[in-house]
Amino acid sequence: MGHPKRLAILTGAGMSTESGVPDFRSQTGLWANHDPMQTATVEALEDQYDTFHSFYGNRLDRLKSIEPHSGHAIITEWQKQGIVSVIATQNVDRLHQASGSENVAELHGNLREFRCHDCREKAKQEDFIAKKRCDHCGGKLRPAIVLFGEQLPMEAWEYAARKIRESDVLLVVGTSLQVAPVNQLPELAAKERIYINEEVDTPISFTRTIQSKAGEGLRRLSKEWQI
């Protein structure tokens, strides 16, 4: 079987769980012990900053020991081979970049950069951890992620959408496609759509479904495509 020439890739939490990053909605996921409306919203940041700060401080601590797995390496190699037109991700851990991938469309932002909530001036991680205020306006510092109720970064969204429309294959890995508006992206792919996930109950129609962990499914495709 020949490999695609314009492969668009969309990844979600299941791409990172093999590296030890917890997902959100499973019985052991982040939302099992935390109410997202109390920890991951603008209201939480503004009105319950101690709770907000503690939640994201703990997530940052977890990331210190997290490394990309073989599935990330496969995607990076495909990109080096020139067949990947876009890597779009819902994940905020930057494991794709840590594996060597470039030009990743971060649809939900990332946990490696920080800014002021009020004036949007860039900030340092150590200042966020220390609960310092913005040097410019005195506002609260936060990770550069998309909180519930916020708009997705338009540049990343438009780039991902355009590349998915242009692709000959869309590969969706490790996402339940429960979160809008990212769950609308697969509908933009007019040609072949492949889905890799441990749970394959999804409202989106796919040309092919591989029920497996991310790394296993990616290794299978890499062998089939001989790359």
UniProtKB/TrEMBL annotation:
Keywords: Metal-binding, NAD, Transferase, Zinc
A GO molecular function held by the record: metal ion binding
Cross-referenced InterPro entries: DHS-like_NAD/FAD-binding_dom, NAD-dep_sirtuin_deacylases, Sirtuin, Sirtuin_cat_small_dom_sf, Ssirtuin_cat_dom
Enzyme Commission (EC) number: 2.3.1.286
Spans traversing the lipid bilayer: none
Residues of the active site: 108 (proton acceptor)
Deacetylase sirtuin-type domain location: 1-227
Family annotation (PROSITE patterns): SIRTUIN
Residues that bind Zn(2+): 116, 119, 134, 137
Family annotation (Pfam families): SIR2
Name used for this protein in its record: protein acetyllysine N-acetyltransferase
Organism in which the protein naturally occurs: Salicibibacter halophilus
